User: Fold this.
Amino acid sequence: MTLRRLASLMAASLALACAALGQEEVLPAAEGLLRPDDQVAFLRNGDIYMVSGEGRGLQRLTNTTDREVSLRAAPDGSALVYESFDAATNEFAIYTHDLASGMSRQIIPVGHAPSWSPDGGWLAYTANVPGGAYEVFVCDRHGQNVQRLTDTPTSELYPVWSPDGSRLAYLRDLPEATRRSQVLVIRDAAGGEVEVATLTDQQVTGLSWAPGANLLLAARVTEAQVRDELYEIRPEPGTPRRLTEGLDGETAGAWLPEVAGLLCSQVSRSASRPIVRTLDGTGSLVPGTESGDLEPTLIPGPSRRAPTVYVRNRRSFYLPAPRIVGDDVLLPLQALAPQIGWMVTPQGATLRLTMGDRELDLDPTTGALSSGDAPLLLNPLPVLIDQALLVPVGALAEHLALTVDWNPTARVLRVTTKEATDEPSERPETERVAPSDPEPGIQ
Assistant:
């Protein structure tokens, strides 16, 4: 089944559920899963809408004759990515919608199931290639630097990144004579693959792998009564665990931050509507939505987001993500250093930072910084995450000749070298920064 036919099937089944509306069921409350500064984007009659976590300020974001599907919000809350069907070309294209400007822009002319990297700098998606199969591609958030990752006789679908950005998961079709099967594949940075689970008589309709360690599968079960279910599975060989209970079906699921619950579409006997729910199944309707609204996606509010970082007036994306500790922001040192003109080299148990004839020694364990004088203890201390050392930029600013402007309300950090006096005031460029980058989008 092609992605186009699958999308049409999903839309048709949900429309049928909404057509038989009776008294709407009220679910038990799932308090605290949505915050007041969160936004929830969703699809209504083929267009994109947005409402606050409290159900206020409903906005219509798109107004076209095309049909939008596969809606996903960027981790930094700055943009949405989605597919839009163009009846003139009979193809789905991938678009991004910038929430600050309200502008939508086509970035990939033919593509499906886009998903964001955890740093927000890259997108993974599938596209049809000669021969009829769908393969996995990655590109930057502007649709540039496209690279094909898979090349197999069968189709790969629904690619999603692991929370640390080191792996991709996707579904691979395994056509059989009498029964349909798919296998869940985990791909590492070197291109190695591990088959996690084989799914028979289930048509997976979506994947989510953020922010928890496990994946969330949305699947259409076909072996008995056709229904939509959600499953959880570890990224290692095993059997998916069904999360959906009762008579209602759930689809288009995604993890909420801190893995506190799920945001998904519920299809019941009387209604189809976005819900937010805990892992034990208690939940509530998403405030401000209506029956027939589909594919909810969380636009994290400022209180959830990692800091937005500009270095020398360029937007930078980091993995691991920046952390806020006290009144300072921690950034990956190996990624930050070349941006500001410094070089980092190991010196036994310490790190040597050099720029020209200036040298600093940093003990990553104790946080002691020295330049020949008595060591200074950094506050807050550096933190080691995923083999990357995150250091406090504010505490290091004077020693690295930096000007640091941190806005804790907007959660925006601007880092400028003191020697740079001719930098442009506009910030149109973006830069993705990581300690290593063996493949675009997988590090």
User: Anything to note?
Assistant: The domain at 308-433 is CATH 3.30.457.10 (Copper Amine Oxidase; Chain A, domain 1). The chain is about 5% helix and 45% strand.
